[in-house]
Amino acid sequence: MTTRELKILAPCGMLGYGFPKSSFQRGMELLPDAIVVDAGSTDGGPHKLGAGSAIVSKQACKKDLEIMLTAGASARIPVIIGSAGGSGAKVHVEWTRSIIMEILQEQNLSSLKIATIWADIPNDVIEAKLVKGQCLPLGLSVKPLTKERLEATNGVVAQMGHEPIVAALEEGADIIICGRAYDPSPFAAVAIHKGYDAALAYHMGKILECAALCAEPGTTKDSMLGILKEDSFILKALNDTRKCTAISVAAHTFYEKDHPYLLHGPGYILNLEHCKFTELPDHSVEVSGSRMIETPVYKIKLEGAMQVAYRTFVIAGIRDPLLINKIEEVEELVKQQVYDYYTEIPREDYAINFVNYGMNGVLGALEPTPNAGHELGVMFEVIAVSQELANAVCGSVRSTFLHYGYEGRKSTAGNLAFPFAPSDIPFGPVYEFSVYHLMEVSDGLEMFHCDYEEV
Amino acid sequence: MMKLSEAAVVLRSKNSGPFEITLDALFADREIYNALKQSDIINKSLIAKLYNIAEENITHIVFFDQALGFKVTFSRSVSSGTFLDRDVYGAQQHAPLMDLEFDF
């Protein structure tokens, strides 16, 4: 049996979240084979994908990349960025690429091969798959994808597996900018490229993509090292204030997944049910027993967002117990008065929504104990077909609510305490995930085109 | 009797994708974990009642012994970050589990 091992340095759980330079440096001293960082998420909702904006600022993204790229170039190891720019669509990948080019120029880094792997999926491809029944919603509450909804969607991306990233490594790429990628894929690709077990590679990637979140105390803002061997892998915190425990690492398999030990990825299912987690004397943890099976049909996860409306909202507080006692009733009356006022506007052009923070604001209909405290924060929003209409209706809701003469009222000067002036906040477009589907493809390379350039 | 909020070292909620909420409870003590697991109180009818949702919307209730924890996943009525959603990250949906009592 060989004793070879492969080391991957994960600087932080999200590119732009930052990390202590000392932890990163300690990782570099252990001679990693690659630096890999995840840059994407759907966690913040559909807005980033729909609007083409990033999760982190350019300043933060550049700050992290500068450290990673200079270290990667001097150690001559690949630097891989998964789901560039937050959502991994063309605009996000280009944004990341321009920051990288800026850094390479400023730091005088050259003789580097840059691979850019695009994850955008053309509408006609999706339409054809829909017709053939090879593109199905993922989840019970995903709305059916019609031609109209697809056309209204601002670009669709798919999560790539390791295959296109392995191909870029085979081409000798030093920097790989991935469009939307399954979070563990860029980590797994490094290991699979070197011939390591794919199940262990993906399991290690699944943990490393959140960097130090699997340690105690956990955080996404610190570096971790993954050491992959033939039959196991080791997770090592790079900061003395953190350690990995068998429980902290095992518990991480729970994180943000629908099932604790069955993880669905592009082309395979990872089964971690019989994994062993062993604590080592240096506060690292060794994991073994990860298994995976290839799915009979290779499916990739599609993500797309469409604009559904414009929003204007107001935040206010209520302290008067008379109003708090009948808040939901008064809100219904306010809503009705606004409907009655705007008889000329079709009802389907706008909607009014109240959120009563301090009563059932967070859980809404799921709240088992909807009891108000002695004060209530109310948020009301209007979404409408245009920003102007949202502003107009929200202004009416605000003035109606502020002065509404509910039964028994004594506070005739006004019902709401506003923390801001002006009180009405035009918010801009509201999006929803219109595409969240699994699409059948022939293999993991088919949909992901790669461009190369030398600097 | 022990409350879940006292028994668990981690009791959290998060999106598992934009269309689902997943609840995780993790324990530091194997005996407490086993007592809860054997009590069988964490089941679809309890979650449906606690969260005022239909049992059909619950996709998983699974215990994972290596992590000393269990996971519950159900589909969201409103997907993350769009109109009428109240919790974009799904990070504050765990509270209804906290007062749950079991024998220990």
Note the beta-strand portion of chain B: 25-35%
Oligomer: heterodimer
Q: Could you give the distance between the termini of chain A?
A: 40 Å
Structural class of chain A, please? Answer: alpha+beta
Which structural class is indicated by helix and strand composition of chain B? Answer: alpha+beta
Overall pLDDT metric of chain B: 94
Helix content of chain A: 25-40%
| Shape designation of chain B | elongated
Mean pLDDT of chain A: 96
Q: H/E series of chain B, N to C?
A: EHEEHHEEE
Total helical segments of chain B? 3
Number of helices of chain A: 13
Number of β-strand runs of chain A: 20
**What Rg of chain A do the Cα atoms give?**
25 Å
Domain Acyclic terpene utilisation N-terminal (chain A): 63-392
Organism (chain A): Candidatus Pristimantibacillus lignocellulolyticus
Protein name (chain A): DUF1446 domain-containing protein
InterPro entries (chain A): AtuA_N
